[in-house]
Amino acid sequence: MNTTVKKSTRKLVLTAMFACLAFVLSTCVYFPAMAPFQHFVDVIAAVFLGPWYACASAFLCGVMRMASGRTIQAVTGAVFGPILGGLIWRKTKNIYLVWFGEVIGTGLCGAMASYPLMKLFYGLDVTNPFYYIPFYTPSAAVGGAMGIMVLAVLKRSGLLDKMLKEL
After folding, report:
1. How far is the C-alpha of 137 from the C-alpha of 159, rounded, in Å?
2. Mean pLDDT over residues 145-151, rounded?
3. pTM for the full model?
4. Residue 125 region, left (φ>0) first, then alpha (ψ -120 to 50), else beta?
5. Which of 1, 71, 76, 82 has a beta carbon 3.0–4.6 Å from 114's, enabling a disulfide?
6. For the chain, what is the radius of gyration of the CA atoms?
7. Per-residue pLDDT tens for 98-121?
């Protein structure tokens, strides 16, 4: 088996594992209108997988959360953060800026994307498109900070670089 196939297989498996981890953590530790553990996993996935696989992981978790009774916000609130965080990681290799990408991607982009979908699919009659920002931003900030703490410990111990080389 060639190296490219091995790398793709590892990333696909890790994508599924991150999706399942986020789903289990978000289901077991429930906060109304918040999912900080989704953002915790998003930050870690953005670093390990890059923007597109991390987005796929967040999307899969969101679909599973929707299937268990959550709204479409489970998807829209999750996919923008790992894309922005992963792109920032790819460009800078700075784990702290990944947190910033998660907060802006989720807290602003995800919140703004949720507004028209909630209005369309659920008939929510909210006149302000900024309505979800106060809910999404703290969740992304707290969850992303937890993910950054894990990455910082891995980086300080030298394990982060070793793990990334295996991918």
Report:
1. 30
2. 97
3. 0.91
4. beta
5. 76
6. 16
7. 999 999 999 999 988 888 888 887
